[in-house]
Specification:
By secondary structure, this protein is mainly β. The chain has one helix at residues 28-31; strands spanning 4-7, 10-12, 18-24, 34-39, 46-51, 57-59, 67-72, 77-82, 91-97, 108-112.
Length: 114
Amino acid sequence: QVQLVESGGGLVQPGGSLRLSCAASGSIISIYPMAWYRQAPGKQRELVAAIGYVGSTQYTDSVKGRFTISRDNAKNTMYLQMNSLKPEDTAVYYCNLRDAPRTWGQGTQVTVSS
């Protein structure tokens, strides 16, 4: 069973930055298209950023130009660099496969507040 562990969240002021990490069991991060998702209180989970087989990336409009998704295949780890954070970015962030999400991990809380 795939295990996904997110880390790196925290409390940050508007305009600040955070870097999230996703560690996975096995080699799924280096094999499959992966994605970061987030779920804000009272809202549905949404896809924030994704990275494809050959490193192509896609972002939801609200984070374009501010977030960057990447992965280190040797470390089987995926990252989400988040800059110029806004209060509306506050959510629990999860990593998972892009096309067929498996069991969700616990996520990492990101809170953007002054």
